[in-house]
Design a protein that fits this description.
Elements lengths: L1 H12 L4 H16 L3 E8 L4 E8 L10 E3 L3 H9 L3 E3 L21 E9 L2 E10 L7 H26 L12 E4 L1 E4 L2 E8 L17 H29 L2 H4 L1 H8 L2 H15 L3 H17 L4 H21 L13 E5 L4 H4 L7 E6 L7 H9 L3 E3 L13 E5 L4 E4 L3 H22 L16 E5 L2 H9 L5 E5 L1 H5 L7 H15 L4 E4 L26 H6 L1 H14 L6 E5 L5 H20 L8 E6 L2 H4 L2 H5 L4 E4 L1 H9 L17 H17 L3 E3 L7 H10 L3 E4 L4 H8 L4 H12 L4 H12 L5 H4 L6
Parallel strand pairs: 9-10, 10-11, 11-12, 15-16, 15-22, 16-17, 17-18, 18-19, 19-20, 20-21, 21-22
Antiparallel strand pairs: 1-2, 1-6, 2-3, 4-5, 5-6, 7-14, 8-12, 9-13, 13-14
Helix pairs in contact: 1-2, 1-4, 2-4, 5-7, 5-8, 5-10, 8-9, 9-10, 16-18, 18-19, 24-25, 24-26
Length: 757
């Protein structure tokens, strides 16, 4: 059975469109189950009817023309009950409804299984037989299993087929593809697919006569690519901070004779291979190695290596790399967008990015955020070859791409863009006003930073300091651990720019989904493994260098605060304090006059919530990392889209935990802020205000929205809302209550960027 199942699924996956996929399903299932009929009904979302889509055994002429209401007939019953129905006398069943023109009246036995994908009934798979008999358990289990396995394939085929005119017109409009939110904002423009003219896998294996000539030719091509990259780097330097432009150095190093270039030359010489096949061999073997790595950051490097390989190949094939003319704004789409591809489009024409592969860890997402380009990453199943020249919508808030948008939806997004511009203009006026309630209760808004580009935006938005400097970001962009001096420079710039406002620098928080290319951490359960403070306490040499760099950067300023990530008990805090004191004493002995900064603890592991009193005896302040706290309290991987429905900072347990932290900190007289994504949600911000948090720290873009919300509310009103919310026991009720009670004092883009279709 397993083998048959596997074959059917493979064959269906290879089908070009929904109809061919369904045709394969019905004929293969009929064959495998030795029945007389197999048919598929698919739910049409527009009419909410079950359409008779494909059959082997009934009248094929009726395909796509007949349908049942969602609760009609046995097929409707299967869909409604969401469970299989197996009958030996179908016509005796009260729900039986014979579908005219199909010829099904000749068949007495009926078995149907629902096709369910992510809780949604996509349709029903039916087998029928003329002789009255009940299908046995094995047959039932086969049908249920195949329906479950095919659900994903059908869902993917539906969206792919929907892009093109297709005989069942109802699937054509507003096709939504889900990825992850790479950079916020929305854009409406034409899609342009960027691809390389050459294909590494298609390079034929050839030997070569004149080795010397071939090596020279290869060296020339390498040099040309090197010059192209240097030109791109120059273009980028004008647009982005130095630190991010350093990504291009990584590319240039890869091209170095002593790195990949050398390996290729060796292959040409030793194996007497022509340059193209030597290049393809070497590059593809590196790509495969990178792709097999478990570490997300390292896997991204495969994209960079392939990009370089393709650029060289284009020269070797004496084909110019593809050049597009960009007269109109475009949304750039690629199988694997890379940082260098961004440079191919003039900045004023680049309004959106969509990448099939990659995550928000990818270089391209980091750059997109710093360049303010709405971006969606990791849109698996996106049929990109069909999107070139199509009008698209990129929703970088929710991580959605919409193709074939109806006029209505397109207008909604255009209106939203206008509204967003107006709101942003209006919000700009708030820049120099304090964040306080109508009755003058102050709530300072701080910013989360990591890149230098964040700094400029933070100041423009009126941030009152840095609540979280993610120090791992400069580490992620480097090719090795940055030296003490390099780190000191980066930290000093931050401290100076914000002076005299406070800057809270978190010590290196790697592990989980953040792994350094030059310090890979390979684990079965990385979020429950060697993360944050656990890594740095095991590597005091890394921790001490970082702390010394921070302390040195603080000399003569004094606005530094140090924050420790992933603390799960007092032991880790004590060890960290000891190391910080040691670094400080050493610097004092060296004659440096630098004060000991305030040292705080992130509350992001549930155990820390229950040890607040003990931690408060040793720490100067607290900051709640609601991203991880939500993940660990709810046992929901923050990066897993399958369980993302369950991940919510409105879960009563998350809100109660935050409230406990705020109360305990107050009792101990220690300041407490919150720096996870929840702090940047204007509605949740009202709750945190009422809980007694002393400050909120968020991405710069959220500051005006949160400020506008707080300035519209009175403190006692916020308290009333919090009390009501704390008495509710489920997430949905809490969200509904907040929506009802806060909607009136907010404007759409403040509340939620835009609600997806
Ligand atoms: C958090 O966990 O809420 C947090 C701010 O840290 P990070 O998102 O960097 O893990
Ligand atoms: Mg965290």
């Amino acid at each position: 059975m397993l083998e048959t199942l596997r074959h059917i699924v493979q064959e269906v996956s290879a089908a070009e469109d929904v109809q061919s996929a369904l045709d394969v399903i019905v004929s293969r299932v009929k064959e495998a189950m030795k029945t007389e009929v197999c048919s598929v009904y698919l739910r049409d979302k527009n009419s909410d009817r079950l359409v008779f889509m494909a059959t082997d055994g009934l009248n094929k002429q009726a395909e796509g023309r007949l349908s049942l209401a969602k609760d009609q007939g046995l097929v409707g019953l299967v869909a409604k009950r969401e469970e299989p129905i197996n009958l030996d006398h179908a016509s005796d069943h009260p729900a039986y409804k014979y579908l005219p023109d199909t010829g099904e009246e000749a068949f007495e036995s009926f078995m149907g299984s629902p096709i369910i994908h992510h809780r949604e009934v996509l349709g029903v798979l039916v087998v029928q037989q003329s002789k009255s008999r009940k299908f046995d358990e094995l047959e039932e289990s086969f049908l249920v299993t195949i329906a479950a396995q095919l659900a994903g394939v059908i869902a993917a085929a539906q969206v792919t087929g929907a892009i093109q005119p297709f005989k069942h017109a109802s699937f054509q409009k507003n096709i939504q593809f889900k990825g992850s939110a790479g950079a916020p904002g929305v854009s409406v423009a034409t899609g342009v697919v960027i691809h390389h003219a050459s294909d590494l896998q298609a390079v034929p294996d050839k030997s070569c006569e004149n080795i010397e000539e071939e090596v020279d030719f290869f060296r020339d091509c390498l040099e040309q690519v090197r010059q192209d990259i240097a030109r791109l780097q120059e273009k980028f330097v004008k647009r982005i901070a130095k630190q991010e432009a350093a990504l291009f150095n990584v590319y240039l190093q890869m091209l170095d004779d002593s790195a990949i270039g050398d390996e290729i030359i060796k292959k040409i010489v030793e194996d007497r291979r022509c340059a193209q096949s030597a290049l393809a061999d070497v590059i593809m073997s590196h790509v495969r190695n990178f792709e097999l790595m478990d570490d997300a950051y390292l896997r991204e490097r495969a994209v960079d290596v392939k990009d370089m390989g393709l650029r060289i190949l284009a020269y070797l094939q004496e084909a110019e790399p593809t050049k597009h003319e960009y007269d109109e704004p475009v949304i750039l789409i690629g199988e694997e967008l890379t940082a260098s591809m961004l440079g191919e489009v003039p900045r004023d024409k680049l309004v959106g990015l969509v990448s099939v592969k990659g995550s928000n860890n990818s270089h391209v997402a980091i750059l997109a955020r710093s360049m303010n380009i709405p971006t969606v990453m990791g849109v698996e199943g996106l049929p990109i070859h069909k999107l070139n020249g199509l009008p698209l919508i990129v929703d970088g808030y929710h991580g959605h791409v919409i193709a074939n948008a109806s006029d209505n939806i397109r207008q909604r997004y255009l209106d939203f863009q206008e509204e967003e511009k107006l709101v942003n203009k209006g919000l700009e006026l708030l820049r120099d006003l304090p964040c306080e309630t109508l009755d003058k209760y102050r709530l300072p808004l701080l910013v989360n930073t990591g890149l230098m580009t964040d700094v400029m935006r933070s100041l423009e938005q009126g941030a009152e300091g840095v609540g979280l400097f993610r120090s791992e970001i400069p580490f992620l962009l480097n090719d090795g651990f940055p030296s003490e001096e390099e780190q000191r420079d980066i930290y000093r710039t931050h401290l100076e720019v914000f002076y005299p406002r406070p800057v809270t620098m978190r010590s290196l928080d790697i592990g989980g989904d953040k792994s350094l290319p030059y310090f890979p951490i390979k684990e079965e359960n990385p979020f429950l493994g060697w993360r944050g403070i656990r890594v740095t306490l095991d590597h005091p040499e890394i921790f001490l260098v970082q702390i010394r760099a921070m302390l040195k950067a603080n000399e003569g300023l004094g606005n530094l605060q140090i924050l420790l990530p992933m603390i799960s008990g007092v032991g880790e805090l004590e060890e960290s304090l000891e190391l910080i004191h040691r670094a400080h004493n050493e610097l004092l002995l060296d004659g440096l006059e630098t004060p000991l900064p305030k040292i705080g603890v992130m509350i992001e592991v549930p155990s820390a919530v229950y040890q607040m009193r003990d931690l408060a005896k040793r720490a100067d302040f607290f900051s709640v990392g609601s991203n991880d706290l939500t993940q660990y309290l709810l046992a929901v991987d923050r990066n897993n889209s399958r369980v993302s429905r369950l991940y919510s900072h409105y879960h009563p347990a998350v809100l109660r935990a935050c409230y406990i932290v705020a109360q305990e900190a107050k009792k101990a007289g220690k300041p407490v802020s919150i720096c996870g994504e929840a702090a940047g949600d204007p509605i949740a911000a009202v709750l945190f205000l009422a809980m007694g948090f002393d400050a909120l720290s968020m991405g710069a873009a959220n500051i005006p929205r949160v400020k506008s919300m707080i300035r519209f509310i009175e403190y006692p009103h916020a308290k009333k809302i919090l009390n009501a919310v704390l008495s509710l026991d489920n997430t949905q009720d809490i969200e509904d209550y907040l929506h009802r009670n806060l909607h009136d004092i907010s404007i759409t883009p403040v509340l939620k960027p835009i609600s997806p279709m």
